[in-house]
């Protein structure tokens, strides 16, 4: 599958924007890890895909850099009030469900890789970690951009994707890392 076909497939899957980037161009900044530690999402320490269980910032960075390419995925949602936590939660869920469908399709077409989500993994509720168990879906599990310490604004800029669309729209980002 060509990179152009991957982008076209992402758009057909419903993503507002998609672009391929060399992983070496992704900007990582460990200053984002404290955002996870604030535990505003309630998943810190109780989700396999979230810190500290997912790995250190350096381990997460190396996981991405061990691959050559990433398909950056953008969705747009009508959310006029960024304090509307329920709307944001539903938008991130929609983004991640579309990304999982895309990931499965890419894998079926011979492009192995892994997903970086718009939020931490929500495949199981609660996560098996809460019961001290191993991940139920290790091949589908995904960590969020913050867990990887990705500077999303710089990523969006590098890919030519709008980070702050305005007019009551909110953009969410994820990636499919491959090659």
Helix content: 25-40%
Shape descriptor reads: globular
What profile does the largest beta sheet have?
Answer: 5 strands, mixed
Can you count the beta strands? 5
Count of helices? 5
**Would you tell me the structural class of the helices and strands?**
alpha+beta
Low-pLDDT stretches are none
The largest beta-sheet arranges its strands as 1-2-5-3-4
Series of secondary-structure elements, N-terminal to C-terminal: HEHHEHEEHE
Q: What is the alpha-carbon Rg in Å?
A: 15 Å
Oligomerization status of the protein chains: single chain
How much beta, percentage-wise?
A: 15-25%
Q: How far from one another are the termini?
A: 11 Å
Quote the average pLDDT: 94
What characteristics describe this protein?
179 residues; alpha+beta; 5 strands; globular
Can you characterise this structure?
The protein is α+β, with helices and mostly antiparallel strands and 179 residues long. It is built from 5 helices and 5 strands. The mean pLDDT is 94.
Helices, strands, pairings?
Elements: H1 3-12, E1 17-22, H2 33-37, H3 57-65, E2 69-78, H4 85-108, E3 113-117, E4 143-144, H5 152-159, E5 169-178
Parallel strand pairs: 3-4
Antiparallel strand pairs: 1-2, 2-5, 3-5
What's the short version?
The protein is α+β, with helices and mostly antiparallel strands. Helix content is 31%, strand content 18%. The longest helix has 24 residues, at 85-108.
